[in-house]
Structures are given as structure tokens and as C-alpha cells.
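Dear colleague,

As promised, here are the two records you asked about, laid out in our usual form so they can be pasted straight into your sheet.

NAME FIELD: protein one
SEQUENCE, THEN STRUCTURE:
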Amino acid sequence: MLVLSLAALTTLFLVTRIPLGDTLVYRAEGQAVVNGTSLYDFVTTEWKLPATYPPFAAILFVPTTWLPVTAMKVCFFVGNLALLALLVRLSWRFAKLPKRPELMTAAIAFAIWLEPVFQTFVFGQINLALACLVLWDLTRPKGALGKGVGLGIAAGIKLTPAIFIVYLLVTGRVRNGLTALASFAATVLFGILVLPSASLDFWTRRMFETERVGKVWIVDNQSLQGMLARAMNSMEPGLVWFGCAVVVGLAGLWIARRAVRAGMEEWSIVIVAVTMVLVSPISWSHHWVWCVPLLALLLAERRFRTAVAVAFLFTCRSFWAVPHQGDLDVQLPWWQQPGLSPYPMVGLALLGWMVWRLRDGAAADGTSLPGGGTGVGASVGGPVRGSMPEPRKQQTPSESRTER
């Protein structure tokens, strides 16, 4: 099954000559570092894409300049395949699923076609790398040396994972949180030392320019702001979005804190990940690769019907099917909104579901959580550390973020 899935994916890429546009941006960033040219004033590719990541990320992209473009694209393609396998493995272990290689192999074969994962391949993105880094670091043993460093590095590459640093602090893992914060600060300092001018430009101006990333209202943006813009038929939801983002952000962290106290640390991590992509001003659909550990947790709790529904939602690509050329994204009627914003809707539903499960409180030993079903640990043969208490994630890549 995995061989057939890989063969289909490879054939599709070869036949359609998918350009991996973001990979070309990474290469241009690395080239700017090598040449000593301005990092945030250039645009590249036929779609005129700019650099949007911190200077530390651009430094890490320097090795992309050492290979011919075609070889670099092949490396990104193969690398993302390996990272997907790693993410499935981490999610499998994270959810305490049975160690059955044939099931894990089937999961990898299926995960390729989850829309967020597939789009990560299409753009040549780094979402899988960041998710693996964050999930690996957060699930290391409590006293592991340097726990938090990986999380800080992920935040230094792309700012959004920094919400996990706040998560560690508010859930009492102060030492790990401070380690992650120090690691993040080190990436910023390294960027300043190597690229002082670019660092000043980014941290004082560019990081606030959402329009550099893309239009907030197009269907590619599966964040809370994108959903509100389309639902309000407005290109700038402004204060409405900001107020909602603050509420959702605080609620997500509060729910995660409650979940940790209830012995549901696995769910707390997924809750924070979902909160991260919801409150980010722009979360392209491929940012939702966290649907992989979400599905693993649902399967571990034997919530098969819910898992099938969620898998279908992250596979059906409904927002690509709705007519949205030009500015049609903000002119569609209310009844089409669920198809336009499926990911933020399922994200909000997940937050609400967790509030319901925690509504009566839960004992730290996992004996009184409401909601039905079995815990993660119980579903694989007994209690384990951090297990769930027993309850009572087609348009062409060029069109999606550019003038259409």
C-alpha cells in the first residue's frame, strides 16, 4: 500500500512538474545570506514571493544553495517523505497506539493524501519538520537533558511555535519553558550577530507586515481571521478578528492547562497546536499538519467514527472546490462558509469538545473525566505515563497566495 501511494505521488509530481515554489524562496533566502544582499526586499519566482521568516531561518537555508535547483527539489521531496514517516511514528508513540508495523505503514500511505500534508509536498514547505521538532521535544522524558531546546529552535525558524513556550510556563513546566525561551533567544541573537541589518529590519518592521505573507481573506488561509473575513464578506475583519483571536488564544491555553491537570497531556499538546493555527493571522492549509497526531489520538481512544469524519474533512479539499477566483472568496453566501473554512471550524469544535469533556473536572489519576470512551493508555493495554484518563490537518501552488 505504501509503495503504491509513493508511486502515485511521485508520478503526479513528475507529470505535472509541480514547482515547489516555497523551496525556491528558501533557496533565495540562503542566497541572499551568501551574497550579503537585502533579505526582505527581494521577491522571487514568477509569483513574486518574498521572504517572511526570521533571519535565523535564512541562515539555515544556506545549504540549499549548494545544490542545483533540481537536486534541491528532490532533496526536499524525499526529505518531506522521511519527515512524514517520522511524524506518524512520533504520533503513534505519542498516542500509545499498538506497535504494529503494518498499521503504521498503512497510516503513512494514507497520511500522504491528507490535504495539509499533500500541500506541504506541493509547496516544498517545512511544516512537517517543525511539527516533528515540536512533538519530539514536548514528548521527551520529563528530566531529559535540554528538553525545550528543540521547541526554542522551532520558534526561531518560524514564530508561531512560540505559543508552546507559553504553554510550558502556564502548565508548571517552568524549567523546560525557560530552556525553550533561552533557546529561542539564542536564535534571535545568532541572527543579529550574522545578519544585523536584516535582524533589525525583521524584528522592528517585517514581522508585523501580514500582507507580505498573503491576503488574509483567500480560501488558502484556514485561520480564524480567514474564516471571519470570508464570513463577514470583508477583506479586513480588523478588531473583530483581533478580539476573537485573543479570546480563542487564552481559551486554548486555559483548556490545555486544565487538560494537563486532568492527566490528558497528549490532548493538551494538540489543543495548543490547534490554537496556534487558529490565532495566527495567516495559517495556510498546509500548516494544519497537526491533523496527524489528532487522528492518532482519536484512534487510540477508539473513536473510529469521529476519526473517519476528521480524516474525510482533511482529505476532501472542499475549499478548493468552491468557486473563488479573484475576490469571490469574500462574496460567497453563508451556506457555503462551512466548505470555505473547514479547518478553523473543526479547530473550534475541538476546543468546545474538550471544554465539554472537562466540564465537571477530572482527577489527576484519570478516574473521573466525563465524555465517554476509553483513555489512550487503556486502549492499548493498560495505564502508561501521561496516558488519557478514562472518560465518563486542487489549486496550483502558485495561485493560492498570489494575485489571482
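NAME FIELD: protein two
SEQUENCE, THEN STRUCTURE:
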Amino acid sequence: MSAAPGALAAYRPALRPRVLLSDPLLDGAATVHLIKDAETGSSFKVGPKEHFLIARMDGERSLAEIGEAYAGEYGRRLGDAHWKRLLGLLGAKGLLAGAQGASPGSPGATPGAPGVLPGSSAAARAGAVASPGAPAPVPPAPPVPEKRTLLRGSLPLVADADATTARIHRAVGFLLAPAVLAPLLALTLAMEAVVLARAGELLLAVRGLLANPVLLTGTAVLLWVSTALHELAHGVVARHHGGRVSEIGLRWRLPAVIMYCTVDDYLYFGTRRHRIATAAAGAVMNLIFLLPFCALWLFAPLDDATHEAFAALLLLGSVQALVMLVPLPPLDGYRIASQLAGATGLAASTGVYLRLALRRSPEAAGYPRRARIAYPAYAGATALVLACALAAAVAGVHHLLTA
């Protein structure tokens, strides 16, 4: 069968400009790619073969040319039926340029064609990955918006979060230049070395802070400000790497009230380094925020109460930043670990794989080599981090009890 016989052979499909394709990601034993329509927010999972075809729909290459490349890669030629299924679904989802309003029978609006892609982002999260000829899953009902009550809810703070983030980026984006960022990171490492070396003194300062309501309130306010800057840092770094911020607001689960910053397109950045930088930006911002207080604590002539309050702030702020780097969902450390592993649903996939491996199930051997390395490595690293955190907590409590 020819690569794309008949009228379809000359057709040159093009994805809409805001359609994004991710790198290959582990999803259990499978390798998948995510597709997202940045305008609607809808996302889908496809396998490597579907991605191979979709990624080449640039308006320059015809289906005949794409089909030849596919045959060279996979040793199989696709016929009209396969192309119609794929183009029909892409057109129905509005992912093809000119698909909306296409006349029946045109490549972008093939009527009644069964789908190649999952029908919704929820289907993607469930791990549905279809292949040519598979029927489209029935999309679930759309999620019900969270009801805002006195006890819980969220409230957007700006009308255009992306424009707000762009303005912030113009003001502080120079901090992301290597000549500026590298010294800041070196100073934060030096600060954390001081915090570790004088941890006993800082722990006693935290205990003393609890007896001073005024300084305790001031320290709590500074930590809240650090949390707000944490969220904005995610947005600014994402914007720096071409991402989009869809919402900035307040979220409350009383008695906790925190700021949030929703970053779109994070998984679709051009390099893994940019994705990791976006995930790590919040914790780095927490530490940079502490630098002036560390300088005052070390070198300024402060009264005893203020000196003790700054000491407590240094320890509590450092713990706040480091906790965010723990590789457990939904923390930033988990997003970093997922990028290092190149996986989606890393924690769940790791659990499934380890259960199969411990039972010596033949299914475990069917996982690709990359997965057999990544999942145990993630489990071991997480266990090590949690063990270190527990040891530090025990040592801290022991110091407080014996001081």
C-alpha cells in the first residue's frame, strides 16, 4: 500500500501555532508524548509512532513525504484509512491549522473517523494511549469548579497573570543572567553551610522565638512573603524560558492562606534544563530571600532579641526551602525528580514497577531498560532523602531536650 494514496498524498497538514509537543516520557512501561493545545488547555497522550507523524505536520511536508519517513523508521506504510483517522481526530480537536470550518470530507474534518488520541486530559492522566485503528475513549465529564467557601477556596488577584508576570520579568529578569545568578547561588550555598555549622545555636533561637509573640508574628510574616516570592519565581523563570502563566492568586485552606502561581506549558520547554530550572526556582528564591537577613545576623550590631529572631528566620526559612525539594508529590522536588527521570506519573509508576519486581513478575522484565533504572533510582533517592530528614529532626529534638 502506498504511503498516502490518492488525494491525501499531496496534502500538507500543519499544526496550529499554539499546539505543543513534549519530549518522550516514561509512563509505566510505555513511552509517551504529551500534546497540548495552549489555547484551550486540553492535553493528550500519544505513543512514539503517532508523535513521529504529528511532529512532522509543519505545513511544508506532504503526507506522502511524512509517510515515506514513517516507513523508513518503522518499516510500515500507512494507507488512507490510517491517515483519515489521525487527521480526523486532530481536526476534530482543533489542532490542525484551518481545521475549524473545514468542509466534510476534507483532510481536516474527516467525519465519523475513530480517534487515534485520547479524548481528554483526564484520559491522558489515566494513561490511555491509543494506536492507529483504536476507538477514541469516551471523554469524562468536565471537572466541577471548586466551590469557594469561608474555609477553603481560591481567588485570582490579577486579570492578566501572564502580562503581570511579563512586567515582573522585565524588572528582575537580569537576576537570571549567569553573571548575576552564579554569585547568588554561591552565596546561598555558603549561607547554608553556616546554617548547618551553627544549627544548634539556630535551634535554640527558634525555641526562644516562641516565647516572643511580637517577633514570632514578624518572622511568620516574612516567611509568608518568602512563600509568595517562591510562587512568583516559578512564573518569572517560566516566562524567561518561553512559558505562560495563567493565574496568580490566593488559595486558602483555613487557617493556611498562601499565594499560588499557575504555570502553563512547563512540560513543553525546549530543554530539560529549563524545565528543572522552573521547578527549582521557588526553593532558590526562598534561599536568596534569606541572604540579607543572614548578612545582618552575621555582621550587623543588633540587639539580642532581633539577633535571635534573624537566627530563627534563617533556620526556618532554610527548612522551608529544603522541604520543597523533597522528591514527593506535589512538591517541587518531585517535579525535578520527574524531569531527571524523564517520566510522567513517576511516583505511581515506581510503586507499580517495584511491586512487580519484588514479586518477580514477568511483567517487570518487560519494562524498558530506562524504566528499570529510573524507577528504583527514584525510590532509593527518596528513601535516602527521607532518612536524612528524619535523622536531622531527631538530632534537632535531642539538642533541644539536652541544651
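A couple of things worth noting about protein two: The beta strands are 19-21, 25-27, 30-37, 43-46, 152-156, 244-253, 256-264. The first strand starts at residue 19 and ends at 21.

Best,
R.
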